[in-house]
Amino acid sequence: TVPEVRAKPEEAFEAMAREGREAVEKHRACSLTYGCMSMGFLMVDEKLTEEIGVPAVNPVKAAVKMAETLIDLGITHSKRAYPVPPSLVR
Question: 44: closest CA among 69, 10, 81, 74?
Answer without folding.
Answer: 10
